[in-house]
Structures are given as C-alpha cells and as structure tokens.
Automatic annotation (TrEMBL):
<dbReference type="GO" id="GO:0016020">
    <property type="term" value="C:membrane"/>
</dbReference>
<keyword id="KW-1133">Transmembrane helix</keyword>
<feature type="transmembrane region" description="Helical">
    <location>
        <begin position="567"/>
        <end position="590"/>
    </location>
</feature>
<feature type="transmembrane region" description="Helical">
    <location>
        <begin position="524"/>
        <end position="546"/>
    </location>
</feature>
<keyword id="KW-0677">Repeat</keyword>
<keyword id="KW-0812">Transmembrane</keyword>
<feature type="transmembrane region" description="Helical">
    <location>
        <begin position="499"/>
        <end position="518"/>
    </location>
</feature>
<feature type="domain" description="ABC-2 type transporter transmembrane">
    <location>
        <begin position="390"/>
        <end position="589"/>
    </location>
</feature>
<dbReference type="InterPro" id="IPR026082">
    <property type="entry name" value="ABCA"/>
</dbReference>
<feature type="transmembrane region" description="Helical">
    <location>
        <begin position="469"/>
        <end position="487"/>
    </location>
</feature>
<dbReference type="Pfam" id="PF12698">
    <property type="entry name" value="ABC2_membrane_3"/>
</dbReference>
<dbReference type="GO" id="GO:0005319">
    <property type="term" value="F:lipid transporter activity"/>
</dbReference>
<feature type="transmembrane region" description="Helical">
    <location>
        <begin position="436"/>
        <end position="463"/>
    </location>
</feature>
<protein>
    <recommendedName>
        <fullName>ABC-2 type transporter transmembrane domain-containing protein</fullName>
    </recommendedName>
</protein>
<keyword id="KW-0813">Transport</keyword>
<dbReference type="GO" id="GO:0140359">
    <property type="term" value="F:ABC-type transporter activity"/>
</dbReference>
<dbReference type="InterPro" id="IPR013525">
    <property type="entry name" value="ABC2_TM"/>
</dbReference>
Length: 619
C-alpha cells in the first residue's frame, strides 16, 4: 500500500505553460502600474522616426532630368555649342603627355637654390634616367631632392625588355621640344622588376623613392601571360597597377578596386572616377598595350625595329589623317598644363614637331579618330533626396539612442526580480527558469512586435518611402528581438538593477562605436563579423536604407540581396536573428555559471569524473 505522503511527493507539478500564464499576468500588472514609463519604452523609437520624417519633409527632393547629371548638380548638355563640357568630356592623356608629366614631376626644394635650379632644369630637359651611364641620367647631386617617377614593367624577361619595351621605345624616342625642354624617351622612363613580389617589396621598402634601384613609381604594367613565339600573334594578359594611397575620394585619384565593383544604387554620374582614369594614365597605358598587341612588332635575330607586321594595323600616313589623329595631342589638358608650367605659360610645340617624331604610334590601331575623348553615357532622370546625405554622420546613432529607454527598462525588469528575491521565491515554489524567462520574452516580444509594426508603417510613410514595409518591419522587429536577448544576457551577470542597467547601456553604446571603424571600402567579411554585435548590424542596415533612399530606390525584395557599400541588407536581417539566438544561449549559460546570492553555481566548463563516465557528462 502506498502512503498518502508518498503519493503527494510523486504527484507531478504544474506544466511550465501553466506557470507562464500566471507569470504573464504578473508582468502585465507590473507594466500597468507604470503606464507612462511603459509607453515611452515603445513610443520613443516611433517618435524619433516621425521626427526624422518631419525633418526630411523640410528638405525638398530634387528631380534630375534625363541626360548628363551628377547626384549634386542639374542635368547639363555634353557640349556647349561646339565646345565640349569639360565637366563630363575628358581627353585621354597621350603617352607623350604622360612621359612629359613624369619627367617634370615636382621635387623637393632643398637648401641650396642653385642645386634646386639645376635639378629643375634637368627635369625639364628630360634627364630622368636612373642608369648612371645614360647620357640623360638624373644628376647624382639631385638625388637628395627626390627621383623622377617611373613606369614599372613586370616581369623582367625577353618579352618585356627586349621585345615590348624595345618596340615601344622605338615609338616614343626622346623628343626635343625647345632648347631646354624635352619629352623623355620611353626607355628612360621605365624600370623592370623580376616579379610582382619584388615590385611590392620595392614599394614597401625603406629605400623607396630614395635610391636609383628603388625609384618612385607612377604605375606598373604586370604581364601574366605572353606569346610563346615573339613576332607572332598570341595571347597577352596583363594588369595595370596605380597608386590610391592619396585618398579614397581625392581629386585625380584612380579609384580603388576593393569593395563593390558596381554601385547598383547609383543614378547620377560620378565624373571624378573616369576623369582620373583618363588623366592619370590608366587609359593611356591600356591603349599602349592594345596598340602593341594589334601591331605585333617584328622580331628577327633577337631584335625588333618596332615595325608592325599585321596588315591594316597602321593607318595610312597622310596630312589629313595626321591632323585628325594629332588632335588628341592638342586636346590633352595634362600635356598642355605640364608644358605651360614648364615654359612659363608659353606654348612651343607644333603639329610639325609631333608629326615628325611620333606619328607612328598614333597611327596604330586603335586610332583616336575622335580626338581621344572620354565621356559617359547619359542617365535616365531620377529623384534625389539630399536629407540622408545631410544627416549621414548622425543617422546611425539616432536609431541606437532611440532604443536606450527600452533597453534600460528591460534590464531593470529582469534584474529587479533577482534583486528583490522574487525569482528566488518563484524557484522555491517550483517555477522553472524557462517559465520565468519565457514570460518576459513573451511580454516584451508582444510589445516590441506591435511597436515594430507601427515603426514600419511610420518609416514607410514619412522616411523610407521607397522601401518595402515588410522588410522594414522585419528589420525593426529582429533588432528588437536582439535587444531583448542582449538585455537577458546582461541580466544574467548582475544582481543590482541600477548597476546592471547602467553598465548594460554603456556596453550597448560601446558596441555601436565599433561600427564607426568601418568605411565603404571595408571588406564584406569584416562587416559580417562585426554584425555579431547587434547595434553594428542596425547601423549597417540603416546605412543601406539611407543610401538606397537617397537616389529614390529603397530596399525591396528585388535588391535586398544586393551589396551596398560592401554589405547586404539581407545580411543585417540574418545576423540580427543570429544575434538574438546567440545572446539568449549566452544568457542561459551565464545564468548557470555566474555566482549568485542563492542556488548552486556550476562550473564554467565540462568536467569528467569516474561516476560521470558511467552516467554521462555534466557542466
């Protein structure tokens, strides 16, 4: 016969969901005791969204017409009469202009004005060779003031030195423009490296730009595939390398190749990028290698004369053709500027000077029959919202700060139960942790769900007009979930509500600070890793929304997986969900291992004993 006491002990307790209903009622009663405070927890993010929307309405959007227009300017014609609009139309720098510009590059002043004048005159006269035996060698006394820039060629082998460089050298010999101004030869303007690693070692070495064996470099042509038989058509693969260390958005800086290849949200033209490609020599060297490949210079007995072997590779030399092709020379603003500065504003070169010296390379295909002009295709009309660019520097922090009140309230609610011994009492009564924590997750989950619905509606109506309201809701709600999970994780560490709320908010803001270390050129992998901090994912997502709304596109299901500033909006959604799970798991772990005023603290790592080998592992 079983005793009544034994029967009572064996009787099962209430199911966790039974406790949860009671705890939910308790949580609702607590919230109803402080209605104003509860209202601010959910209304503050909505109010700040409405405020941002109001400020946006005070800055009128601008419509850009179809044609040639930048983001910040009206649509302009490509030509003013017969004169090209230099804002959009640029002339590809000629090889002659590039060689002259490299030769006349600035040098340091030094203490001795006589030495400086001597070195300056040497530059203008084309004495730029780093070969000390050359008749046009850079004077040794000028080495302390700097070295002329060079074009690097990689690798150093028969194809590059004896075939490519020799043939191009025949096309671009030294050209005397005046008695004291000369265009350096191609041969005096290049330097060879055995491989790409040697090139990089030279650039990063301490002797860079100081010694003749490690001169300053303006660009590098790196060949990766070359014909096996010289003098015959074959496969040529190469890359052009240029310096971008002077700044991401500096004037005439060749754009970086890191980050996104294409900006899918760009609607206006960015003339700075292609102008830099045209002016700084990228197109020039690209055209040079292309002309060499289509020409296929002769090769006999280990030598070349630079004569093209391919039929129709060179245009017939006539006065009309020369005048048409040499128009690029007189449109070359880089050449005109360099020469004007070197000759005190006087222009000495003439068509006869260039026709007699360098007509051959201009006649090689591809010929600049249009004067070597570079200009973009027109764009379709679009709408610009300047508000987001105006507030870009504070946009992320505004969203982070709008959740501070909510975070603080959740921390106080969770930690107060431990501080007042309420949780200890509930456990004594048999209430499991899953019911206690789950009740708060449900309470705040419902509150934040409703708040996220309202946030999405307000944001879609007044701020992010072109974005999907569904994606906006998911974004706000998933961040709210990660906020709740973060608060639970922090609450597992502290037993004093004020201390926990204070340090939890500070930690939240410090997580936001991490986002300020990233730029548009930061790698996607680094941004994904940083998004394990939920405020960082929030900021990256908000930045994507702002960037897309600036050009009247918005984030929709069509572009949610497209990379914007090396980050996808879908990545933010996924990472916020991951953050919610990770923070919750960490909170459960910390609840078990952080010392408390009551209960038994478990070890922070699994341990194995003889008994446990039979019964299993325990933490």
């Amino acid at each position: 016969m079983v005793s009544s006491t034994g029967a009572a002990a064996a009787a099962p307790g209430p199911a966790p969901h039974g406790y949860t209903r009671t705890l939910l009622w308790k949580n609702v009663r607590l919230k109803r005791k402080h209605p104003i405070k509860t209202l601010f927890e959910v209304v503050l993010p909505i109010a700040l969204l409405a405020l941002m929307g109001y400020l946006k309405s005070q800055m009128a959007d601008t419509n850009r017409g179809t044609g040639w227009a930048t983001w910040y300017g009206p649509s302009d014609p490509l030509y003013h009469g017969s004169i090209p609009n230099t804002k959009y139309v640029q002339t590809e720098a000629t090889m002659t202009g590039l060689l002259l510009e490299l030769g006349s590059n600035r040098i340091g002043y030094g203490r001795d004005p006589i030495v400086y004048t001597t070195c300056r005159n040497a530059l203008l006269a084309g004495y730029v060779s780093t070969n000390r035996t050359s008749p046009y060698a850079w004077p040794p006394r000028c080495q302390s003031l700097g070295l002329p820039k060079k074009i690097a060629i990689v690798p150093d082998n028969t194809f590059t030195r004896q075939y490519f460089a020799e043939a191009v050298g025949q096309w671009y010999p030294r050209v005397e423009l005046t008695s004291n101004i000369a265009v350096p030869s191609f041969a005096d303007s290049v330097v060879f490296f055995p491989n790409e690693q040697a090139l990089e070692d030279s650039i990063t070495g301490g002797r860079y730009g100081v010694t003749f064996d490690s001169p300053r470099l303006a660009a590098a042509i790196v060949f990766t595939a070359m014909p096996s038989t010289l003098g015959t058509p074959g496969n040529i693969e190469y890359s052009l390398r240029f310096n971008t260390t002077t700044g991401s958005f500096g004037y005439n800086v060749v754009p970086r190749t890191s980050g996104d290849v294409v900006d899918l949200l760009q609607r206006g033209l960015d003339p700075d990028a292609y102008r830099a490609y045209a002016r700084e020599g990228f197109y020039t060297l690209q055209t040079l290698v292309t002309r060499f490949a289509t020409c296929v210079p002769d090769w006999k007995d280990g030598k070349t004369t630079g004569t093209c072997t391919m039929p129709n590779a060179v245009a017939a030399a006539t006065p009309q053709v020369d005048a048409m092709l040499l128009q690029q020379v007189f449109n070359d603003t880089r050449l005109a500027y360099t020469f004007s500065a070197a000759s005190s504003g006087k222009t000495y070169y003439s068509p006869r000077t260039f026709t007699s010296n360098i007509s051959n390379p201009f006649g090689c295909s591809p010929q600049a029959t249009g004067g070597g002009l570079v200009f973009p295709f027109p764009v379709v009309g679009f709408t610009v919202s300047p508000f987001f660019e105006t507030v870009d520097f504070i946009f992320g922090i505004v969203f982070v700060l709008s959740y501070i009140q909510c975070l603080s309230a959740i921390l106080v609610a969770l930690i107060s139960e431990k501080e007042t011994k309420t949780r200890e009492l509930l456990k004594i009564l048999g209430v499991p942790d899953v019911a206690i924590v789950g009740s708060w997750y449900i309470t705040y989950g419902v509150m934040l769900f409703v708040a996220s619905l309202v946030q999405a509606g307000v944001a879609s109506a007044v701020l992010f007009n072109h974005s999907s309201v569904v994606l906006l809701f998911l974004f706000f709600w998933l961040f709210s979930c990660s906020l709740l999970a973060y608060a639970y994780m922090v609450s597992a560490i502290f037993s004093k509500a004020k201390v926990g709320a204070y340090l939890g908010v500070i930690g939240f803001l410090l997580m936001y600070v991490v986002s300020t270390a990233f730029t548009n050129e930061s790698t996607a992998a680094s941004k994904v890793l940083a998004s394990l901090l939920s405020p960082v994912a929030l900021v990256f997502g908000v930045n994507n929304l702002a960037a897309s709304e600036t050009n009247g596109v918005g984030i929709t299901f069509d572009n949610v997986n497209e990379s914007i500033k090396s980050y996808k909006f879908s990545t933010a959604l996924v990472l916020l969900l991951v953050d919610s799970v990770v923070y919750t798991v960490l909170g459960l772990y910390l609840e078990r291992v952080v010392p408390k005023d009551y209960g038994v603290t478990e070890a922070c790592h699994p341990r194995v004993t003889t008994t446990e080998l039979k019964g299993g592992l325990s933490c």
